[in-house]
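Protein 1 of 2
SEQ + STRUCT:
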Amino acid sequence: MKRSVVLLGLVVCLLVLSLPLEIGAQGEETPEPTASSTLASVVDDFEPKTFVSGVGGTLSIIGKGLTSDMVVRLVNYGLLTTSYINEGALTAQVPPTVPPGSYGVRVTDGGAYDELVGTLTLIAPTPTPKPTAAPTAPPPARPGQPILTIRNYTVTPEQVRPGQEFEVAIEIYNNGSRAGENTLAIFPGGTFLPVGEKGHQLWQLHINATVVVTQKMRAPSSIGNGVHQLSVQLEANDWEGNNYKFPHTIPVEVIGASTGEVTGRPKVVIERAETEPAMLVPGEPFSLTLRLANRGSRTAVNVFASVASSELAIPASGGDTVYADLIRIDGVVTITLPLVLGSVDSGGRQSMPIALAYSDYSGGGHSEQQAIGIDVNTSLVRQPQLIIETYTTMPDFIAPGDTLTLTMRLANVGGGDAERVTVALGGEGGAALAPFVPLKAGNVIFVDLIAAGEVVELSRELLVDGAADAKAHTLPIQLAYDDARSTRHQETQRLSMIVRRRPELQASFYRPPDLMMVDMPGMLSVELLNVGRSAVNITEIMPLSDRLELRLEGLPFVGPLDPGGSAPVDLSVTPLEPGEAELVLAVSYRDDFNQVQVISQTLTVEVQSAPEMPGGVDGPYPEGPGGRPPEEAPPETLWQKLGRALKGFLGLGS
C-alpha cells in the first residue's frame, strides 16, 4: 500500500513538472533565447529599461534599417502598439496593465527577422496608505491569439490525373501573438479524397514558428479537367483554452480527364517593368526587365515575350524574343531583353507595346499585347543638330539671268559631333532647285565633320533662269549627317530667294546738247526709253552731277512707262568746270514687291573753257568766227515741245 502511494506521488510530480509555466503577477520567466534570423541585427538599443507597473509609458527602439512592418512584443505578454518613425526609430506603447516583472523585448517583422533585444523591468508601484483597503480587481485577460496560415505549399506531381494519387506538402506558420496549443492540421476531403489519416497533431506551435505537414490525396475518377480547390482546416488553442479555426484551400490542377471540358485558362500579365538606365536616349542601348505573373487558373507553358514595335526598339544582341518554359498558377518569372532605343521624336513618358504568347497543357494557344511605360530623353545633350544660322546672296538684288553666290553659315547647336555631313541644294536629287542652276559644281556640298558648337561657312555659285518669275522662291536645303553611333539623321530646311525684275531703261539726248562753256547756261534735252519687256512704274527722276548746276524745266515724267515708251527730261545746265562732266539720272520706281528701288543712267557732256573777251577779260563778248559774236540758237517754241512729246509717246523717238 505504501509503495502504491509513493508511486502515485511520483506520477503527480512528473505531471506538475510537465505543465507549461506562465508568468503571473507573482513570478517571472527567463526571457526566450534569440530566434535564429536570416537578417543582420538592425536594433542597437531601446530606452527606458524600467517602467512602473500600472503607469505604463512609451518604449523607444533605436537602430538602423527599421521598417514599417516591424512590431514590438513583450515575451509572455503579447504585442505592443508600435509606430514607425523612420529607419532609425520605432515607438511602442507599454500599457499600464502589464504586471510587475521582467519581460524580454522582441522586435519582429512577421517574416525572417525576429530578435530579442533586451529585458524590460516593470516594478510595482509604491503603495499609498489609505484609510480603508480598496477591493482588488481581478487581473485583465492578456490580449492576443495564435494565427495559423499556410505560407507555402507544393503538389506532387504538379498536374494530377483522374484516379491518381498525389502528395500535398504545406508549410504552416504561426503569425499570431500567442503560441498555438494542441495544433491540428486536418484534410477533410471533399473534391479530393485523403489517403490514410487525414488529421495531423502538431501539439505546440510557438510564435513565428513553422512546421511542414505532408498528406497523401487521391483525385476521383469522375473529376473533370481544370483547377479544383483542396480544403485544409487548421486549428489551435491558446493557453487559456480558447479554440481558433483557420480554413484554407489549395488549388490543384487536373488534366487528362476523359469526359468534361477543360475549365479555366492561363493569364500572363506584366506586373512590373524596369529599364536600365531609367532614362532612355534614342540610339542608346538599354535592358528591359519584365516581371511576368500567371494570374489565371491554369499553368502557362512555352511563354514568349517580345517588343511589338520594331521602330521603337531593336535587339541589341541576339533575337528580339525571350522564352520561359512555364509559369505556374500565381507563379512569377523575370525576363530581360537587351535592346536599343529607336529614333523617337517625342520625349517624356512613352508607351511601348509588349507581345506575349503562351500555351496550356491541353495545347491551347494564347497571345495578347500589353503596354508598358518608358521614360525617353530626346534633348540634344548627346545628339548633333544642324541649323542654317544665316545666309546671304551676292549681289543682294537678284534678277532673272543674274549670276549670284549663295553663302550659308551652318551651325551645330547639339551636344554631339555631326559626321559625314551632306548639304543638298534643292532637296534630294535637286528636284526643287529651279529656277536656280548650280555653276561649276553640283548641288551637293560635303563636310567631313562639324563639331558640337562649331559653325562652318559654305558657298555655291548659282545662275537664275532668265524666264524666272519675279517673286519669292523657296529653296529647300536637305541636311544629312551621322551621329557618334553612325546613325544617319536627315532633315530639310528652307531658304527664301527673292527674284526681282530689273527695269531696262536707256538714256540718250533726243536733241544735240548745246555748246557747254563754263559759267554759261545751256539746255540739255534727255530722253528715257523703256527697252525692256515690261512696264516700269516710275515714281521720281532726279538729275545729279558734281560739275554741272542743274535745274529741271517743267514737270518730269511720273507713272508707268510701257515697253517702247519714252519720257523726256529737259534740263537747264550751267557748267562749273571745264572738261568731261557726267550727268546721272537717278530713276526711282516700284518693283513687283511694292518696294521703291533706284536705277541710274549716266550721260557725259564736254564742257569748254570760256574764251577770252576782246580787249581783255573785260571785253563785251567773246570772239566768234570772223571776229563776230556766236549766233545764239532760237528758243524752242511751245508747238515744237508738244510735237517732241507726242513722238516720244508714240514710240517714234524725240
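Protein 2 of 2
SEQ + STRUCT:
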Amino acid sequence: MNSMQNPSVPYRAVGYRRVSMPDQVNGFSLDAQETNITKYIETRNWQLINIYVDAGISAKKGSKRPALEKLLLDAKAGKFDVVVVDKIDRFYRHLGGLLATLDDLNSHGVAFASVQEQLDFTSPWGKLMLTVLGTLAEIYLDNLRQETRKGKLQRARQGLWVGELPFGYCKGLCSRCTNPNGKDYCPEYGKPDKTDGKIIMPHPVESLVVKKVFDWYCQGDTSHRSIADELNKTILTLPDGSTVPARQRGKPGKTDPRPFTRDIIRDMVLRETYAGRLAFFGNDEVGKHRKRKKPLEIVQAKHQAIIDEETFSRAQEMRILKGSNCIKKHDRPVRIYPFTGILRCGYCGGPMRGTSSRRRYYKDGNKLDHLCACPQTVVIADKIENQMVEWLLNVINQSDPDNNEKEAYAFFVEQEKRFDRAKELYLLGEVDRSVYEFEKEKFEFERNNLQTDSYHARITFVSLIQPQLENWQKISNLERKRLLRLVIEVAYVRGNALAAIQPSSAFLPITALAITGFHPFSGCNSGEGGIRTRDRF
C-alpha cells in the first residue's frame, strides 16, 4: 500500500524541470523551477524524493527526454506517489502526449500537480482544468511552429540558408567554430571570422570533397559505392601544404565524423545547394532534397556555389543515363546497352532489351514477356550499333556545311526568281491570288531561314557529335548511350538491320539537309518558271 492509499503516510513526491533552449541551461530558469517545486512540496508536508532534469530539450511531440523516460520507469516501479512541475508546458506541450502520460501515471497510482496552475490531479476540477490548459499549451506550440515556418520560408526566399548546414559549407565563424570538422581539421579554425554567420560559405576542406565527388561522378564509370570507398581512402592536400583525410562531418552532439557511404554520395550529387540554389519540397523542407520527388520551387541562393552549373548539369545527365544500370556488379564492370530505350522491334513495336552471355544482344521485350509470337530474331548489339554509326556519319557527310552554305544561297536565289515570276503572273491575271500567296510564303520562309542563326547552330551541333561518332570504338558505352539519345528518338529494327529511324528534333535539320540537298520542293510538277498555273491544279 502506497501513501496515496493511506492518508496518514506523507506523499513521496518528485519534481520535474525542463528548459528547451540550450542557452537557458546556464541561466536562472532551471533554478527557479526547482525553487518553486521544492516550496510547493514543503507547504504540503510531502517528502521530496528526487528532481528529474531535462536541460536543453524541447517538449514537443516525438522529442526524446531521458529524464522523463527515467521518471516514468520509476513511477511504474512504485518509487513515488506524486509528480510536481512548475508549469504544465515544462512537462508537455502536446495535448495527446500530456494526457497519455498522465493516464499512464494514474494507472500506476501516481498523482500529478502543477505549481503555477495550482492544479491537483486528484480532484475532478483539477482534471478539467488540466485538459483546458493542456489544449492552450498545444495551441501555443502550433502557433509558434507556424510562425517559425513562415520565418524560415521568408529567409529562404531571400536566398539565405535555413536549417542544418549541408556538408561542404560552414558559417565562416572561425574564431568561435563548433563544427566537428573544425578543430584539428580545418586550417582556418581559430582565425578571425570570415562572415557574420548570416550567409554560409564553402568549408575549406569539405568543399574539396564535394568537388572530387562531382568530378568522379561525371566521368561516368564510377558508382556511388566506388566513390564512397575511394573517398574513405583519400588524403586531401590543403592550400597551405598540410594534409588531412577526407571524412564525413557527423552530427554535433550526436555522432562523430563517420565514413562516407553510397547513400551520402547519392544525396550529395542531387543537392541543388552546391550549384548555388535552394530547393523547396514543402513548407518545412527548405534546402533539402527528396528521392523520387521534384522540388516545388527553386530559388537562387546568396551563398557561393561549390560546383559550376555545367558540372552540376552534367552530373544530373549522368544520373539519368545510368538509370538502373549499375557500373559494377560483383566487382566486375556491367555492360551498358546504348540502344536501351531507343531501339524497337519493326514488327510488333516492342522495346528491344539488352541481354548478354558471351556477347551483347538485343531481344524483343514483347517476345520475352510472351505477349506475342513476333518473328523478330535476336540482334547482335555490335552489329546494329555499328549500322547506326555508319548511317549517322553518312548523313553528316552528305550535309557538308561548306557545300550546303553555297547550295542554300543558290536555292534562295531560285526561290526569289519563282516569287518574282509568280508576282508577274498574278498581276497579268494568269494565276489566282492563292498561288501568289503560296509562293510568297515559301520565299519569306527561305529568306528568314537564311538570315537566322539556325545554320550556325547546325554547324555547331555537327562539330559536337561528329568526333564522337568517328571515335565510337574508343568512347565508353555510357558516352555512346548519351550520344545516341542526343540524335535519335526511336529506331526500328527488322532482323539484323535497321528498318526506320526517327531523328531527334536537334538532329532532324541535319537529316533533312542530307536527304533533300536543300531542295525540299524539287520533283514537283510546275509550270513555266517553276510556277504552278491554274490549268495545272
